[in-house]
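To start, an entry.
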Amino acid sequence: MQKFSIEKSSELGRYAVATENLQPGSYLFDELPFAVGPKARTLCCCLECYCLIDGTASGNRCEKCSWPLCEECSKLTEFSAHKRECELFQAAKCKFYNLPDPNMNCIQLDCITPLRVLLEREANMDRWNNEVDPMEDHRDKRFETDAWEADEQNIVGYLLGPCKLKERGITEEIIQKVIGILEVNAFEAKTLKGDYVRCLYPKLAILSHSCIPNTTHAIHPSENFKLNVRSTIAISKGSQLYSCYTYTLNGTMDRQQHLMEGKYFQCHCERCSDPTELETHFSSMKCRDCLYGDVDSSNPLDAEAIWKCNKCPMEIPAESIRESLKALQNEIECTNSIEFLEFSLEEYEGILHPNHYIMISMKSALIDSYGHMKGYLLAELPDILLSRKIELCEELLSILDIFEKGMSRARALMLYELHAPIVLYASSQYDIGHLTKLEYLEQLEKARRILNESREILEWEDENVCLIVISARKSQETLEKLIVSLEMEQ
């Protein structure tokens, strides 16, 4: 029985509502994509497996149609992704034009994913009519923009002309509709080899956007990019289901800009409407006048609104805030060394709130470095750095517990990062006599609870891509043996 219904309104269009009370982790639905293909404005890639290949005359090509295929895929006797367009290119005698430089974006491949949607439309008209045709393409907002004009030339003109789709009853209007649907609704995914593609999931697109989503989804490239969706928190019957169309760990200005430019709407969720971002101060600057106040936008839904200190009369124009943040971001992008990141965190304390998204991004980079970077592998970290990693993970989790509550993938990955330093730090402290055996076991039990929670969520992922699923299982086995051995000593 389906656990949600599809509703309609003039404000939201189509949206999904829970038809029963849902527990955290409740399975909602799975879905195969209507189409999968290369991202727009990508480098030259194989049209079967999507790995990057040489787009110049030296690159490997399909023996049948002469379009890009890697050496491995060119040896296949039957295609799954490339089959239909290969036949079309052969029949229409469409030529692939080699690039002069292998580092150039391959604009000619921009037509591939729209073409695949159109070919699937011919083969599966029922699904097109019921699922894809009702999707929003924002034609009115895209019309006569620079992107529209480029698509008219590079995609519409090419498909109707050299590809001869006009002879198949395809019109400019249908092609632009498909381009808009992909631009507004497509989701990014990774292949088994780690290359990026875009997938069109009509059912997932029905879920409304929120910057504090209550669902999570996992894409399984090993199962033809099958997607499954689950609830992350308890959801009451009649409540709306939300996914997130942007990155939750960006500040409000960046999220709003991304949604407006890519999805053509402004988000009015509870988080975006609150200058403090639900009391996290995720976009708050420190006041340069009184030194202890927080400076926030007077209206986060207005990109040009004045920013004001909550402790003194100081006001700052929005443009000045943007310039300051851009300068800080440019500075930290120059290097990702651990020493520089730690130094920058201290240096920025007088400029940014400790929870500011730039501070959080640096802390996230440090978490990725401690335990994974050469010279800083977990087994090599002294207690002070193990303790530092624990501190950083807990700070990130305090943010994720607000923005991505419950059983989200981001929380699962952070919990996984947290469990190991807890075990190693506790083991070290026990070895030098700073922890009793009982205290040591308590810390191991804490790590086990954290790892169990992480594993429960990660098991929804495709382990062929998310290798942490396998690592988490092995870690759990090792941790269980350690706990059992200690308990047997008592």
Remarks:
- The mean pLDDT is 95.
